[in-house]
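#onboarding

Welcome to the new folks! Below is a worked example of what a typical request in this channel looks like: someone posts a single protein sequence, and someone else replies with the predicted structure as tokens. Don't worry about understanding the tokens yet, we'll cover that in week two.

Example request:
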Amino acid sequence: MGVESYTNAKNRNQSQKKRKKYLGYVSGSRYSANRTIPSAQKRAADRQRWGSMMVSQNRKIREILKRTLVPKLEAEGFRGKFPEFQRIESGDLHLLSIQFDKYGGGFFLEFTSHPPGDLQTSWGENVPEQEITVAHTPIESRGRLQQKENKNSVSEDWFRFEKLSEDELEKLVQQVVNLLPQINDWLREKRVGINISTT
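Example response:
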């Protein structure tokens, strides 16, 4: 075998070893190159299945929130169209919004107070009072009601529902209803309850 052929064979052998090592890492065990790696088609199907499940869960939780939570908000004087609500109380405009995780599977309630009347945004937009939402107000002026007793507010702290049954979804929304007094305390007295985050 010539020098060139020997070098080519050696390089080819090293490339094959590197490939086996790489495949072993990818499949979860260092040298398990013979393990089956999910095809792109299977991964796409898994993503689609997960996405369909999230769409179904999101639809269910919205239905339950509308059926159970919204009447309680209306009893507290809030008016609006899901998921944005307002009320006038003691000379203040109280704003409340149900915010959903953009990746699905969670939500929290965000709220603030603002003087009544139209609002001039920092970017120059004039918003009529009846159209003002929480999103128009400074972030630092808002509070959040969340499931976990944590002064920070990351997605793990919110009301999570991605793995819940329908009965568990009902119980989760009832938990939100039971925590509504903390929102009233914050809006009326700026009292920070254990499920309220202001950061």
